[in-house]
Amino acid sequence: MAERARRGRPGHDQASVLRVAIELFNKQGYDATSVGDLARELGLTKSAIYHHVPSKEHLLERALDEALGELSSALDAVRAEASYSPDERLREAVRSSVVVLAQHLPAVTLLLRVRGNTPTEQDALARRRDIDQRLAEMVQEAAGAGAIRDDIDPHLISRLIFGMVNSLTEWLRDEGDADVLADAVTTLAFDGLSRHR
């Protein structure tokens, strides 16, 4: 059976429409961005957008799936690595999260801005809470193993570390060298700013 033709018109494909939509959602806010705004940005008529995607909410869902899917996959890979000790697992989870954020900056930025105004946003927030819980469990495991301090609530530690990671969306403008950035964040999070002698 012949492969079904991809949806879209010449000059734009679903991926390019999604990139422009994410950019507009981040710049104007999802609620304030109309299909007409997206059409103008792409140089299309409003009706032509629907040759590429079924709805504005579909674009939001795809964007949030990109961010959440990459973050979840990164944590799955860290969790699956049997050779990691609890502290190595936590360090790698932080490091991987920074790499995902840098490589998918627009989608992760959008994820961090959703407020639960639509069913898609509510689903994304539930998935994000699950990721937060998985990270807190890694913190608790590292504390239980004596690798990190255990006198601070693991959920608070997790929020502080990943608050630092998430704040990168406020000033990071391009991917640059994601590995160098990830190493710097991980070193600061676990070793602090003290000069080692």
TrEMBL record:
Pfam families reported for this sequence: TetR_C_24 (PF17932), TetR_N (PF00440)
InterPro entries: Homeodomain-like_sf, HTH-type_TetR-like_transc_reg, HTH_TetR, KstR2_TetR_C, Tet_transcr_reg_TetR-rel_C_sf
Residue ranges flagged as DNA-binding region: 34-53
Residue ranges occupied by any HTH tetR-type domain in the UniProt entry: 11-71
TM annotation in the entry: none
Keywords attached to this entry: DNA-binding, Transcription, Transcription regulation
Domain of life: Bacteria
Gene3D superfamilies the UniProt entry points to: Homeodomain-like, Tetracycline Repressor, domain 2
Protein name according to UniProt: TetR family transcriptional regulator
Taxonomic placement: Bacteria, Bacillati, Actinomycetota, Actinomycetes, Propionibacteriales
